[in-house]
Design goal:
Blueprint: E1 7-10, H1 14-25, E2 30-33, E3 47-48, H2 50-59, H3 63-70, E4 72-74, E5 76-81, E6 85-91, E7 104-106, H4 109-120, E8 126-129
Length: about 140
């Protein structure tokens, strides 16, 4: 496969942005297409768990550091019942021997995509385009 043919990614959400950053960091040309005129700023999931934090940290580029600055560290994992209050609480420090990040990080997805896309702007292998909706694909 020619190095001039980019990997095409549809959508600049967390998965698309992370994949684009991962590929571009390795000098693999990537074309990230987003149908909206700008990065989406809507309410979706807001929790990053230890395995995801580990993977993001391994990317480098200061992504995890900025996430930790902007997010809220939650050292407990809780399940609640709306009618009777708390059901279970897990102390995340108990997994400190297994991970560099023994906590959950509360950070909105749109914050993460902005952090990732800020890094993509500085990578020559990355081409991010807005107002580009993917409606089909043929190879």
């Amino acid at each position: 496969m020619s190095n001039n043919i980019p990997v095409v990614i549809a959508g600049s959400g967390p998965v698309g942005s992370l994949m684009a950053l991962y590929l571009a960091q390795r000098d693999i040309p990537v074309l990230l297409l987003e149908k909206e005129p700008d990065l989406p700023v809507d309410l979706r999931a807001s929790t990053f768990h230890p395995p995801s934090l580990e993977m993001i940290a391994d990317l480098g580029f200061g992504v995890i550091e900025e996430m930790l600055e902007k997010g809220l560290v939650a050292d407990r994992y809780q399940y609640r019942d709306r009618r009777s209050s708390e059901v279970a609480s897990f102390d995340m420090s108990l997994i400190a021997d297994s991970t560099r990040y023994p906590f959950r990080l509360q950070l909105e997805q749109f914050e993460f995509t902005r952090i990732a896309n800020d890094r993509l702007k500085n990578l020559p292998c990355a081409d991010v385009r807005f107002n580009c909706e993917v409606t089909g694909f043929n190879q």
